[in-house]
């Protein structure tokens, strides 16, 4: 496994229950800013012996990246909802559930959704 893979997988593993992060945020936290597509590719190549909370990774817009109605889409939405994350029309409000939501709220006074 490459160092980049290790850092990306570690960043995904660090997303706590009830929170989500975008592909780009994971890349940045792994020290690879601008490599969101690499995060997506590596999520599709996770070795069987590694268990990651893949379902906590979303598009920058907060949308689930899988096609709406697909089994993967339904599974991701189900897992997120089981952790108390609001998913409406395939989208999660990042201002409320994103990794940096508390920081944004503290700095900007953003209300929850």
Automatic annotation (TrEMBL):
Record's Pfam families?
A: DNA_binding_1 (PF01035)
**Residues of the Methylated-DNA-[protein]-cysteine S-methyltransferase DNA binding domain:** 4-85
| The keyword DNA damage appears for this protein | yes
- CDD domains the UniProt entry points to: ATase (cd06445)
Domain of life the protein comes from? Bacteria
Keyword terms of this UniProt record: DNA damage
What name is this protein filed under? MGMT family protein
The species this protein was found in = Dyella ginsengisoli
């Amino acid at each position: 496994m490459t160092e980049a893979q290790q850092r990306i997988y570690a960043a995904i593993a660090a997303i706590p229950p009830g929170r989500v992060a975008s592909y780009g945020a994971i890349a940045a936290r792994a020290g690879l800013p601008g490599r969101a597509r690499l995060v997506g590719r590596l999520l599709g190549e996770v070795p069987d012996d590694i268990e990651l909370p893949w379902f906590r990774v979303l598009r920058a817009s907060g949308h689930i990246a899988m096609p709406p109605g697909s089994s993967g889409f339904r599974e991701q939405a189900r897992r997120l909802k089981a952790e108390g994350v609001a998913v409406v029309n395939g989208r999660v409000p990042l201002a409320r559930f994103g990794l940096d939501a508390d920081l944004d709220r503290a700095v900007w006074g953003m209300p929850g959704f």
